[in-house]
Write a structure and sequence with these properties.
heterodimer; A: Rossmann fold; 10 helices; B: 241 residues; Pseudouridine synthase; two-stranded antiparallel sheet; 14 strands; 25% helix
Chain lengths: 317, 241
């Protein structure tokens, strides 16, 4: 699938001249509930010879309303765009969430989009989605505005997993608590890091556990600790099980920004410069400072053993 | 000289006794029917009773279709006890006091589970990962990654109520774990719950009222059994034959 077209605002969106099926929302994490909305847009577009696109916002609206503690994002925009391409979305518009944009009255929201995207045929949102100044707009108002504008409105009901609503907030809480398996269940895929391998400081090698240092700076930081992971990369086919340490490495250097280091359980075909996808599967233990490098080395050996015993099978998607 | 007897073929409806695995039933029938190809369309847990759809001879090719149809169950949930298997077979992991819930409280909580949703299969399940059933891994204390499944609960009604237990009737899509629904309901209510009893009453249009017990089947002669077999064309739409 070719990567989607990407536009930096609704004004700049130069879309192909076809009926536009537009899914609107933050869709942070692209969890099971988000995908129900987006898949509805993609399927309708395919059925009617239209174009499926996503309108999302940057930064997260919370950055405007509570700048001291904005909501941290699970997926970086380039990752989200690539993911959306895989779902069949042809274009992604990342609208700047500015004070002016936030001030658009709820009644004017749909007409504002329609003036700029005249082929707008249908919009797809989650049932609880709110829009417009003061978040006054809800699905009922959207349906009303759509009726006047000749735009169909589709709202997807909230999705439950085991009786609990699937929500980005819960996923963030799980990730921050290290409960990656629970987060993965709600996401419907394994949470992952994506980045190039950087030449490291060879600290792992001196411990007897060579590591790949993956350049990755997520907005939402999962809990610092040791995880069982599944690694894939273009250089070698297959899925490589490993253990990852994500954190500040208090025993060896006390870094200021967290690092992601991955040690593969088997031979390592990857090297500096390779782009890796590291899927997080299972939380093994929190990061902590050891009294000595020997103590750390002994614990890493136990971590590797624990990861080996886990039979995680192939990662979901 | 008589030629070789024509191999039996068709769908046989069995009312599974408790304490039998679905495979036990198949094995017993294979001996009785003297047919190699005998299968079933959808596992029932050993504890559960009720409709097991048995496929005989060439009818085994209907297995995919007959497995895919909606299921109907009657069951009993027990509140206040959480078990590792989510049913009465497992170890009690946790005992919590049951609040003074009314029948309406239960009916309201149950209604929250209607419709399309995802369900994470329980650790104790027949699903295989890497060729090994999950329940074997669970017994060894291994935690394995499971994938959520898309299910739908069409109806879930409370039919009897006597705390800490209640009876229910439920219709759902294939692959739904009723014990997981009951477990999750218990989590929602706060007191925990497990599935104390389960009976499958229907699988698609096939109903348990049409089924025979294993003992009844074993008392019949082969020609009598042949008369009870539902022909393949009556059990599945033409495109699956």
């Amino acid at each position: 699938m070719s990567p989607p077209l990407q536009f930096a605002s609704v004004e700049l969106a130069a879309l192909p001249d076809r009926p536009l099926h537009l899914a609107i929302g933050m869709f942070d994490g692209l969890h099971l509930g988000h995908r129900a909305v987006i898949e509805a847009a993609v399927q309708s577009a395919q059925a009617g010879g239209g174009l499926a696109a996503v309108l999302t916002f940057r930064p997260h609206p919370s950055a405007l309303f509570r700048p001291d503690h904005p909501t941290r994002l699970i997926l970086a925009l380039p990752t989200q765009v690539r993911f959306l391409g895989g779902l069949g979305v042809a274009a992604v518009i990342a609208q700047p969430f500015t004070p002016q944009f936030a001030a658009i009255a709820a009644e004017d929201f749909l007409p504002w989009i329609q003036r700029r995207l005249p082929r707008l045929s249908a919009v797809y949102v989650g049932q609880n989605w709110r829009f417009g100044a003061g978040r006054r707009g809800d699905v009922d108002l959207l349906v009303e505005c759509g009726g006047r504008a000749g735009v169909s409105v589709f709202s997807a009901p909230r999705v439950n997993l085991n009786g609990q609503p699937v929500s980005s907030t819960r996923i963030r809480e799980y990730l921050e608590a290290g409960e990656v398996a629970a987060a993965n269940a709600l996401l419907g895929y394994a949470y992952f890091a994506h980045g190039p391998v950087q030449p490291g400081k060879q600290l792992g090698r001196t411990l007897g556990f060579p590591t790949l240092n993956v350049a990755w700076a997520p907005d939402l930081r999962p809990r610092y600790g040791v995880y069982a992971v599944s690694v894939t990369g273009e250089r070698a086919p297959g899925v490589f099980p490993g253990v990852a340490n994500y954190g500040l490495r208090p025993t060896v250097e006390a870094a200021t920004a967290p690092l992601l280091e991955v040690h593969l359980l088997g031979p390592c075909p990857f090297d500096a410069g390779d782009h890796l996808k590291v899927r997080w599967r299972h939380f093994l233990r929190p990061e902590r400072k050891f009294a000595s490098r020997d103590e750390l080395r002994a614990q890493v050996a136990l971590d590797v053993e624990a990861a080996r015993r886990l039979d995680l099978g192939p990662p979901p998607a | 000289m008589l030629g070789p007897a024509k191999e039996l073929e068709g769908v046989l409806l069995v009312d599974k006794p408790t304490d039998h695995t679905s495979h036990d039933v198949v094995a017993r029938l294979r001996g009785k029917l003297r047919v190699k190809r005998v299968g079933h369309a959808g596992t029932l847990d050993p504890m559960a009773t009720g409709l097991l759809v048995i496929l005989v001879g060439k009818a085994t090719r209907l297995s995919q279709y007959l497995m895919s149809v909606d299921k109907e169950y009657e069951g009993t949930a027990e509140l206040g006890k959480v078990t590792d298997s989510q049913d009465a077979e497992g170890e009690v992991m946790e005992t919590r006091p049951v609040p003074p819930l009314t029948r309406e409280d239960i009916a309201g909580a149950v209604a929250g589970f209607l419709g399309d949703q995802y369900q994470l299969p329980p650790m104790y399940s027949a699903i295989k990962i890497g060729g090994v059933p999950l329940y074997k891994k669970a017994r060894q204390g291994e935690e394995v990654a499971r994938e959520p499944r898309f299910i739908r609960v069409m109806s879930w009604e409370v039919t009897g109520f006597a705390l800490p237990r209640f009876d229910f009737r439920l219709r759902c899509t294939k692959g739904t774990y009723v014990r997981t629904l009951v477990h999750d309901l218990g989590q929602k209510l706060g007191c925990g719950a497990h599935l104390a009893g389960l009976r499958r009453t229907a699988s698609g249009a096939l109903r348990v009222e049409q089924a025979l017990t294993l003992d009844q089947i074993e008392a019949l002669s082969l020609p009598q059994i042949e008369q009870r077999l539902i022909p393949a064309h009556a059990a599945a739409p033409a495109q699956f034959l």
